[in-house]
Every structure is written in C-alpha cells, then in structure tokens.
C-alpha cells in the first residue's frame, strides 16, 4: 500500500508545543520547557523512562489538562473530531456491543447510528472485526478489544491520534501483529500519530520520528529520525538498518536515564 | 496399530473424566429443585406427626393440616388483606426507586448537594422505623399514606446508597474519552454513568424489595392498630389476640410467599438487564 506522504522535512505543520511547563500541586514539575512540532503524516514515538512526563504531554495535547506555562497550537485550529485517543487499556463500554462502542465518537456528536453506519462498519472491517460487530467486549480477546479501541479512535478519520502505551499489556505475538496492522491502518486513514512507549524496538519499528525524554524534570533530550521507508514489514524487524536505529535509540534512552539520576 | 491403541486409551480416559463431570452436573440440576422440596415435605410431615402424637393444642401450635384448612376457609378474608399489603409494598418500592434514583443523581451532579443532604439520609435510615411510625400516624391523617411513608423510609436507602456508589464508579479513562469527545452533562449521565451504575442499582433494588415488605408489615403493626389496617400484618396481629393460630400461621405463610415472590421478581429483572455483559452473570467456561 503506497500513500502520498511528504518526505520527513517537507511536511506541513499540524501542531506545535512551545515552552510547555506543567507543575502538579505547586511543586512537582512533570514537564519543563518542552518543545515539539508535530507535522502532518508524522508517526512520532515519545520514548522515555517512567516519570519522564510522556503521558502528561499526551494528556496536555488531548486537552485533558492545561499547561502551567506555554502554549499548544493547532495550525488552522482544532476542529470537532480532529482527535482520537487509545489508552493502555482498551477502555470499552462493557454494556455496549462492538459496533456501538465504535459509534460512540459520532454518537456524542449527535449522529444517529444509521447516519454513520457505513463508517462504523468500514472501520471495523479495517481492523478485521466486522464479523464481531454484534459481540460484547467480554466475548473478545485482549488483542481484539484493543482493535476495537483503535477502530473507535479512527472512525471519525481524525487528523491526530494519541496512543498511550496501547500494546504494553499484550503478548509479544499479538503486539507484533498489531504493530503491523497499525501501520496499515494509519495509511488507510491517513492520520498523524503520537505514540507513547517505553519499548525501543516498538518505537523504531513504528515511527519515523523518535522523541526521547528524560525525567525530573520531564523534558525532550533527543530527537532522532528513523529514515526507513514504509511500508515496513517483518523483514525490516531483522534488517541491519533496524538494528542500527535500535542501537541509536537505545543509547539515547540510556543517556536519558543517566541524566535523570 | 500400537499408536492407534494409545490414541484410543487416551480418548477413553478423557471421556471418563468428562462423563463424570457431566453426570455430576446432571445430578446437581435435579437436586437443585428436588432436595429443597423433599426437605419441605419431610418438615411438614414431621410437624404434623408431632402435633398429632403429642396432642399439642391448636392455640399453641396448629397442625399444617389445620393451617391449610384455614387458608382455604379464610381465603375471602386473607386475599383482600394480601392485596392491601401487596399494594402498600409495591407502591413503597416504586416511590423508593423514584426517590432513591432522583436523590442519587442530584448527589452526583452536585458535590455540595451531597455534602448538605447525605448525613440526613443516613439519620433517616439508622433511626428505627418502629420509632418513627407512631409519629407519622400523628402527623399524617391518612393511615395508608402514613404506612406508605413508613415503608418508603426503609426501602429507599439501599437504592440511594448503591446508586450513588454506582454513578461514581465510572471508568476514569472512559470519563477522559467523553471529555475529549466533548460530551454534554446529559450525555455523560445517559451513556456513561447510568450504565455503569445499573448493576449497583439492581443490587440495591433486590435489598429494597425485601425491605419494602418489612416496612409495610411494621407500618401495619404500628399504624394499623388505629383500626385502619386491613393488610396481612394487621390480620396476623388480630388473629394472635384471638388465639386463632391457624389464621396467624396462614397470614405468616402468605407474607413469606410475598417476600419470596418479590425477591424472585427482582432477581429476574436483574438477570434480564445484566446477563449479556456483566461479570456477575458470567458462567465460567
């Protein structure tokens, strides 16, 4: 599947975080002077040890909290349905069928199921779960639940999707499969992704930009580009390029952990 | 050939184990109904035998046969009494549901309302209803309304407290998701808090059903004495004054039957609402 995504350095800007600072309860500094420009079509991984504020950064972008200082600007302003979110847990409504869970973002915008039925079923088809549209979440496996959560985040074709360690709780095989599928889905929907992870390998396989963060106070210490072409396949996982990028990212992560101590 | 044999042996061993489990399940399915029924038959026979052999006078312990006869003979008196108590119980439960839900929703919509009101809901609950009932009789002219109020006070609290906990126990990530999608207050209540609270509410409903009946019986005991009570509990009380123990036991049995019926109905409602998705209704596979 080929997609017309501009080369890394020529992409138009989507969102800009400038001099972001976030302090909790007056003295816990979660983020200090964080700067990040997110461009259209980026797949950005926020990589860092725990406590480096990567989840805080995500919550700030999601608008779930306000920065103590600094601004987050969307180029052209943030519109309705511009944002999709996937949490570490699938976070499905257990009382609702799969299709009703995916309908939720539209439902909260006042759209009836019949208005958006095609989008819902098409998105479920993309994640390979159209046969399970009438199932309840408890009938699904962990990986399938996560697919429903991804479908829900993507159903409105948002410009930006935020993912907070979505595959951390899954087994290795499911995780690799979901990594592959996520890249295919991203191409199908054409959105930008910010992906929080603490796995070096996951970040290298998925992203074209890795932002390494350090803790106490949380900040960006390194940015590196993974200039390997998409689509990335299982061969990429075993290639020399992959190993080189992984070493680079791993070094940066070690550096981040040393700085923190 | 030898491999096939091994295969057969293995299959057989699995079959025996599975068969044992299946046989046990079949046995339990039959025993679930027959055992308690058998217990009841034995108990009634023993009772009858004791009364007959020891020649216990009927004003001390009536025989099951006498109770059954009274049940038939006094049916024209007991049936309207049962309707009366039933009406009191059902109305009290209905108002308990309406009141409990309304107050629980107002509590969760405004923390300040909860702070101001919750202690008084607790006081209303912990004060024994037997102590409040005579006052209600003084202040409320209509005896039926007074009895209803009495039963309501007992029944509404489990609904209020369970629903309040349920409305607050929404998944935090789902809360965030609703915020991100710009949900209104009403949407949040309708699509998130209410379904989250449903299992808790139904748990409260089961307790409230039993309590509504207890409240109705207490109300009839206390308020019915004024000569207005025509329900089962007042019938029971009156029968005890007259040493009509056949009628007393008949009324008692009917009250128990009502309690069991209410519990069964509430359990059925709960099952129908939850069996598709809630853990409590899950069968282990």
UniProtKB/TrEMBL annotation, chain A:
A GO molecular function term, named singly, is:
ATP binding
**InterPro entries for the chain:** AAA+_ATPase, ABC_transporter-like_ATP-bd, ABC_transporter-like_CS, ABC_transporter_ATP-bind, P-loop_NTPase
CDD domains recorded: ABC_NrtD_SsuB_transporters
Determine the domain of life of the protein's source. Answer: Bacteria
Q: Which Gene3D superfamilies match?
A: P-loop containing nucleotide triphosphate hydrolases
The alphabetical list of record keywords is:
ATP-binding, Nucleotide-binding, Transport
What's a Pfam family this protein contains?
ABC_tran
Pinpoint the ABC transporter domain residues.
15-240
User: Per its UniProt record, what PROSITE patterns does this chain match?
Assistant: ABC_TRANSPORTER_1, ABC_TRANSPORTER_2
Record PANTHER family: ALIPHATIC SULFONATES IMPORT ATP-BINDING PROTEIN SSUB 2, TAURINE IMPORT ATP-BINDING PROTEIN-RELATED
Family label: Belongs to the ABC transporter superfamily.
**Full protein name:** NitT/TauT family transport system ATP-binding protein
Tell me the organism.
Answer: Yoonia maritima
Upper taxonomic lineage? Bacteria, Pseudomonadati, Pseudomonadota, Alphaproteobacteria, Rhodobacterales
From TrEMBL, chain B:
Q: Transmembrane helix: present as a keyword of the record?
A: yes
In which organism is this protein found? Yoonia maritima
Q: Which family does it belong to?
A: Belongs to the binding-protein-dependent transport system permease family.
Listed A to Z, the keywords are:
Cell membrane, Membrane, Transmembrane, Transmembrane helix, Transport
- Per its UniProt record, what InterPro entries does this chain match? MetI-like, MetI-like_sf
Example GO CC term: the record gives: plasma membrane
Which spans of this chain does the record mark as coiled coil?
Answer: none
Q: What is this protein called?
A: NitT/TauT family transport system permease protein
Where is it located?
Answer: Cell membrane
| Segments passing through the bilayer | 33-57, 77-105, 117-136, 142-160, 197-223, 248-275
Record-linked PROSITE patterns: ABC_TM1 (PS50928)
Stretches assigned to the ABC transmembrane type-1 domain: 82-266
Which terms does the UniProt entry file under GO BP?
transmembrane transport
- What SUPFAM superfamilies has UniProt attached to this entry? MetI-like
Q: What is the membrane topology noted in the UniProt record heading this document?
A: Multi-pass membrane protein
Please state the protein's primary subcellular location: membrane
């Amino acid at each position: 599947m080929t997609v017309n995504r501009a080369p890394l350095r020529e992409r138009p800007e989507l969102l800009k975080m400038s001099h972001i600072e976030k302090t909790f309860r007056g003295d816990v500094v979660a983020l200090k002077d964080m700067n990040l420009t997110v461009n259209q079509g980026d797949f950005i991984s926020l990589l860092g040890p725990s406590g480096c504020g990567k989840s805080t950064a995500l919550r700030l972008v999601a608008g779930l909290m306000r920065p103590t200082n600094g601004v987050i600007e969307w180029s052209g302003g943030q519109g309705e349905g511009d944002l999709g979110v996937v949490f570490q847990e699938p976070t499905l409504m257990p009382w609702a069928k799969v299709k009703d869970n995916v309908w939720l973002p539209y439902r909260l915008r006042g759209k009836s199921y019949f208005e958006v039925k095609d989008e819902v079923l098409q998105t479920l088809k993309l994640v390979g779960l159209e046969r399970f549209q009438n199932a309840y979440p408890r009938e699904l496996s962990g990986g399938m639940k996560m697919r429903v959560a991804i479908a829900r985040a993507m159903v409105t074709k948002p410009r930006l999707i935020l993912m907070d360690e979505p595959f951390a709780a899954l087994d290795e095989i499911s995780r690799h499969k979901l990594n592959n599928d996520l890249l295919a889905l991203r191409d199908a929907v054409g959105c930008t992704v910010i992906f929080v992870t603490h796995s070096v390998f996951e970040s290298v396989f998925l992203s074209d930009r890795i932002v390494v963060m350090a803790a106490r106070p949380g900040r960006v210490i390194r940015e590196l580009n993974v200039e390997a072409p998409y689509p990335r396949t299982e061969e990429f996982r075993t290639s020399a390029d992959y190993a080189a990028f992984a070493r680079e990212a791993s070094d940066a992560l070690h550096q981040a952990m040393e700085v923190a101590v | 050939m030898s491999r096939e044999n091994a295969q057969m042996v293995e299959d057989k061993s699995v079959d025996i184990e599975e068969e044992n489990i299946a046989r046990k399940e079949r046995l339990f399915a039959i025993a679930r109904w027959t055992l308690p029924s058998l217990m009841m038959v034995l108990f009634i026979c023993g009772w009858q035998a004791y009364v007959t052999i020891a020649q216990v006078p009927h004003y001390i312990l009536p025989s099951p046969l006498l109770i059954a006869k009274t049940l038939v003979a006094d049916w024209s008196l007991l049936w309207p009494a049962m309707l009366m108590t039933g009406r009191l119980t059902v109305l009290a439960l209905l108002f308990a549901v309406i009141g409990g839900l309304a107050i629980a929703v107002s509590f969760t919509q405004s923390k300040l309302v909860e702070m101001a009101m919750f202690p008084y809901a607790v006081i209303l609950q912990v004060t024994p209803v037997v102590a409040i009932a005579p006052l209600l009789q003084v202040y409320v002219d209509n005896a039926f309304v007074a009895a209803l109020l009495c039963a309501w006070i007992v029944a509404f609290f489990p609904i209020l407290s369970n629903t309040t906990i349920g409305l607050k126990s929404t998944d935090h990530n789902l809360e965030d998701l609703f915020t991100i999608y710009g949900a209104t207050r009403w949407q949040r209540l309708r699509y998130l808090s209410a379904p989250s609270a449903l299992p808790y509410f139904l748990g409260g409903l089961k307790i409230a059903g039993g309590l509504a009946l207890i409240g109705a019986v207490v109300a009839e005991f206390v308020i019915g004495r004024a000569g207005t009570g025509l329900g089962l509990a007042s019938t029971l009380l009156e029968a005890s004054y007259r040493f009509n123990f056949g009628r007393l036991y008949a009324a008692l049995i009917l009250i128990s039957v009502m309690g069991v019926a209410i519990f069964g109905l509430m359990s059925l409602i709960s099952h129908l609402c939850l069996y598709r998705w809630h853990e409590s209704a899950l069968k282990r596979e």
